[in-house]
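Lecture 7 notes: from sequence to structure.
We start with the chain below.
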Amino acid sequence: MEFPSVVQFLENKTIFVTGVTGFLAKLFVEKILRVQPNVKKLYLLLRAADAISANNRFQNEVIEKELFRVAKAKFGASLNSLISKKVTVICGDVSFHDLGIKDSSLVQEMKNELDLILNFAATTTFDERYDVAFGTNTMGANNVLCFAKSCKKLKLLSHISTAYVCGEKSGVILEKPYGLNETLNGIVGLNIEKEKILIDQKLDELLAQGATEITIKETMKDLGSQRAKLYGWPNTYVFTKAMGEMVLGHFKENLPVVIIRPTMVTSTYKEPFPGWIEGARTIDALTVGYGRGKLTFFVVDLAAIVDVIPADMVVNAIILAMAAHANQAYDNFIYHVGSSLRNPIKYSNFEDYLYQYFTKNPCIGKNGKSIKISKILILKNMSQFHRYVALRYSPLLKI
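Predicted C-alpha cells for the same chain:
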C-alpha cells in the first residue's frame, strides 16, 4: 500500500488513543495531526484527577514538547484551533470498566462514532508491582477489548505490545499468537483469572498484617518476578504483556485486531525530525551513560545483535497495519517491528558508533566543558566482570 493511500485512509476517521502521554503514542498523535489534519476526531485517554488536570497534562506533556515543532511551523497559529476542533482529551484509566470514563454520554458517543482504537497504554517497568502491571498490561488490554466490542462501527483495534513477549528465545522468532494460558516453558498451571485472585489475596493478606507501603510494594514486585519466571518469562513486564495478548486473541470474536510487537524503540530516524527521544530506556540509557563518561565498562558479547528500531518507523508500521487490516475479522495479525533480520546491528558496531559520535559531538558537563570519552572496556562474561570489580573497586570500598 502506497503512502498517499494510507494518508487518505486516515481522512474523516474517528480515532481513540489510550496512553497518550507515552513515547510512541505522542509520536502517533503528532503524525496524524501533521499528515492528516482532515481526520474527523481524536479521542485521547490519559490518567488524571479530573478533566482540567487531563487537559493540563496533555498540553504540558504532549503539545508543548519539542516533538511538535514541525507541526507548529507547518500550521502556525492555526495548530491550536486544529487541536481544539479535532482533539478531545479524556480523563480515564484502562484498568477500569469502560476505561474509567465517568461521562456516560461521552462513552455512548464514542461507541457510536469510533472507527479505530489504538491501545498504547502500558507500564513498561521490568520489575513493576505485579498488581500494577497486571492491572494495566493484562486487564487493561481486556478492558480496551470489551470497550471495542461494544463500538458499533469499529474497523480495527490495534494493540501495541512488545517483541519480548517471546522471552529469551534465540534464532528466528515467528509472529505467532499465544493461546490462552499458554506458557513459554511448557509448565501447566497458568490461569489468568486465578492470577487476578492470587494478586487480590496477597494484597488482602498484606493489609491484614498491617504491612507498610514499602513492604507491600516490594512484596508485589517479588511476586510478579516469581510468577513470570515460573512460566518462562524473564520479568513482570513481558509476562503481563503476553497475558494481555492471550486475552485479546481468545476473546476478540469477530473484532478485527492487530498486535504490534516492536523491539527496543529508540529515537526518531526521520519524522518529524531526526533524533527526537524522550527519557532514556534500555539501550538509550547505555548511550547516555557512555556519552556522559559514566559508563566505562560493560559486559556484552560483541558478536550478538542488538535489535533497535527508530520510533517513527514503529509508528509508520502501526499506521500501515491499520490501513491494511481494517474490517478484516480473521485470525490475529501480529507484526514484529525490528531491525535484526534485515538490517542487523552487532554490539561491536554499536560500540564503534558510540565512540565515533561522542568523539565528534561530546556531551557538555556541569562545568561547561566537553566530556572526553575513551573506548569502553568490554568484558565478555560475568567471570571477567567479577574479577574486574574485585581488582578495580573492592580495595577502594574496603578503604
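Points to note: The longest strand covers residues 41-46. The chain has a mean pLDDT of 94.
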